[in-house]
Amino acid sequence: MRTYIKKDVVERVALRSNERPDTVAKVVNDTFTVLREIMAGDEPELRIEIRDFGVFEVKKTKPKPKARNPKTNEIIYVAARRKTHFKPGKLLKESLKTPLDQIPANEL
Fold first, then answer.
1. What crossing angle do the helices spanning 21-40 and 6-17 adopt, rounded to 10°?
2. pLDDT tens digits, one per residue of 94-103
3. What is the 3-state secondary structure (H, E, C) of 7-76?
4. pLDDT band at residue 3 under the 50/70/90 scheme
5. How far apart are CA 80 and CA 61, in angstroms?
6. pLDDT higher than 90, residue 21
């Protein structure tokens, strides 16, 4: 499995947009920072919809008064918290449905 990092995203956007990588890096960093700030804010539930890509959601979880620590078998209380969820958009979902044997080898 290949892992892509932010630098890979910056390089691809710079190639596609014919912009300098340092300019693109600032925009990409600012975009991720703003998304993180919105999601980490004080709203208990929210959604960020990016058309043709997908939806990032922050959802509340229920408290679990009878969870069990598998290491010690101790019964513990787990407080309610927030979790993130990503739902791919229509275009992304369709492209992921392509069978693997139809994808060129250099794209795998």
1. 130
2. 888 888 777 7
3. HHHHHHHHHHHCCCHHHHHHHHHHHHHHHHHHHHCCCCCEEEEECCCEEEEEEECCCEEEEECCCCCCEE
4. very high
5. 5
6. yes
- Joined together, the tokens standing for residue 30 give 């600012």
What residues are paired with 82 via a beta bridge? Answer: 60
**Residue 10 CB coordination number (10 Å):** 20
Average pLDDT over every residue of 35-41: 95
> Are 96 and 83 a contacting pair, CB within 8 Å?
no
Given the candidates 3.10.129.10, 4.10.520.10, 3.40.1190.10, 3.90.230.10, the CATH classification of the domain at 44-101 is 4.10.520.10
